[in-house]
Each structure stands twice: as structure tokens, then as C-alpha cells.
């Protein structure tokens, strides 16, 4: 089965960024692009149950009316999703993608993505969904659930597209991040892009050896590569390095074996993602 770039869109402010980053990834990877919209017929915000307030004589009639309204809402949601998918497809074609596909499903986003995991090479998602709180440091609950459950690379993107020119990997020597370095080295997604490797921790011989391996792996693949070992709090250190070197895409493992292991199982990664103004590629 062909693995493709899967782009999850809804009516959120991040959908345009999802479209553009997904188109960029599809072209760079020479992989098919599919836009996915999931209609959740079980909204998180519960509506009032009016059935208990219905008088005996009119109860059956009003329940039928409520059922009819639910059907109408579902039809409107389906049509709205279809229009969003068509707009996303048109935008991707403008970006240069030849034949982007569209898929609309009913259910929950997490369950749908799990069903499509074998077809997914890279998932592109916005930082927050349509129903999430709009505060700049709020992280959508769908994104957190997807990252915890989906064992595929996930590219979380901001609202506006900026072509990546410098990429940084948060490296801790774990199996996941070593695979991440090897992925960076060989992936056409990062062809010609300078790579930075950052280890957060003490400048020990072991860390120096790990950094040397990572830089050698990247340079052997033809990348311009540099790196550093810095002590400090993980999130603050990553953010400072990103700003110093004008990094505009971060790669990190969802799990590791050092303090970065707290990413996605503690507060560190959630905090990194919440405050991220650039794309973050999460690896499993």
C-alpha cells in the first residue's frame, strides 16, 4: 500500500498552514498527498437534553423533530467538510501538487488516523483544531491524543507557511533520536538544508561521542551540519538555541532515555509544542 502525506484539516486558523506544509512535504518526498477531514458526530460540548422537558402528549413528535435536526446538522457538516477539502485540494494544486486526493470520514480523528496508519508516511496537523481554545499557548487535545497513539512521524505546523531553511534536532542518544538523525541524513524532505544537533545536558565524553556520531552521519550524507552540548532546562535551552541560529523547523523524539524522555509523557514537550511558532516534527 502506498504511503502518503496525510494532512488533517478542519475549519481552524491552522488549515492554510497545514495545506502549504503538506504540499511542500509531498513535493519534497515525491509522495502522494491526501487531505483528510473527519466529521465527528459526537461533539465534545454536550447540548442540553430537551427530551425530559417534553410533555407526554408531544413527546414523540418533538423527539422526531430533534432527530430530524440532528440529521440536518450532519448533512451541513458533511457539505462543509466537502467544501473545505475542495479548497485544500485547489490550494495544493496551486502549490504544485499534481493530483492531491481528498477523504472524508465520520468518527473521531484519532480512531480514523489509527485506521489509516499503514497508509501514512507523514501526518501534517495544525497546532490546534477548530474547537480548541484560541490562546496562543493552548495545545489542541486532538494533537496530544494523536501523538500519544499514532506511531508515525507527525509534523505540527503553525498558521503560516515558511519554507524550512535550517533544521534542529533535539538529540539525546536514544534509539528514537538516533533514527531521527539517520532519517534527517537520508530524507529528501531535508535535502540541502543545514542541520543543527543539540544535546541538552553536561558536556561529558559520552555526550561528545554521541554528538560526533550525529554530525558525521549528517555530513557523510552531504549536509552542512553543526551542533552543541548545552546544560540547562530542556525547553529553555532548545528555545534559546533556536533563536540564536534562526532555526525554522525542530525535530524531536516523542520518547527518549534522558531528560528529553519527559517529552509527551511529562510537561516538557507539551510546553515546547504549546509555545512553538515554527513546525515541530515528532518522531516515534
UniProtKB/TrEMBL annotation:
InterPro entries: Universal_stress_UspA (IPR006015), UspA (IPR006016). It comes from the Bacteria. Residues 1-158, 211-284 form the UspA domain. It comes from Halomonas stenophila. Belongs to the universal stress protein A family. This is Nucleotide-binding universal stress UspA family protein. Gene3D superfamilies: 3.40.50.12370.
Amino acid at each position: 500500500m502506498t504511503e502518503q502525506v496525510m494532512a488533517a484539516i478542519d475549519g481552524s486558523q491552522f488549515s492554510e498552514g497545514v495545506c502549504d506544509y503538506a504540499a511542500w512535504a509531498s513535493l519534497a518526498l515525491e509522495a502522494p498527498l491526501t487531505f483528510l477531514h473527519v466529521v465527528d458526530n459526537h461533539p465534545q460540548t454536550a447540548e442540553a437534553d430537551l427530551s425530559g422537558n417534553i410533555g407526554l402528549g408531544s413527546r414523540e413528535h418533538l423527539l422526531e423533530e430533534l432527530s430530524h435536526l440532528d440529521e440536518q446538522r450532519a448533512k451541513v457538516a458533511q457539505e462543509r467538510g466537502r467544501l473545505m477539502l475542495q479548497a485544500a485540494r485547489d490550494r495544493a494544486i496551486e502549490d504544485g501538487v499534481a493530483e492531491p486526493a481528498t477523504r472524508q470520514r465520520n468518527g473521531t480523528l484519532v480512531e480514523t488516523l489509527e485506521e489509516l496508519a499503514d497508509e501514512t508516511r507523514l501526518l501534517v496537523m495544525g497546532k490546534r483544531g477548530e474547537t480548541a481554545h484560541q490562546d496562543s499557548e493552548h495545545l489542541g487535545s486532538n494533537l496530544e491524543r494523536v501523538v500519544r497513539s499514532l506511531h508515525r512521524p507527525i509534523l505540527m505546523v503553525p498558521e503560516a507557511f515558511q519554507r524550512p531553511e535550517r533544521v534542529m534536532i533535539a538529540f539525546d542518544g536514544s534509539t528514537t533520536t538516533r533514527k531521527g538523525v539517520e532519517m534527517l541524513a537520508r530524507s529528501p524532505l531535508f535535502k540541502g538544508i543545514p542541520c543543527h544537533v543539540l544535546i541538552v545536558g553536561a558536556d561529558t565524553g559520552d555526550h561528545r561521542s554521541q554528538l560526533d556520531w550525529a554530525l558525521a552521519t549528517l555530513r557523510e550524507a552531504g549536509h552542512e551540519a553543526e551542533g552543541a552540548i548545552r546544560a540547562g532546562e530542556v525547553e529553555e535551552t532548545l528555545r534559546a538555541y533556536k533563536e540564536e541560529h534562526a532555526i525554522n523547523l525542530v525535530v524531536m523524539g516523542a520518547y527518549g532515555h534522558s531528560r528529553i524522555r519527559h517529552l509527551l509523557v511529562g510537561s516538557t514537550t507539551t510546553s515546547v509544542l504549546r509555545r512553538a511558532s515554527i513546525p515541530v516534527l515528532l518522531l516515534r
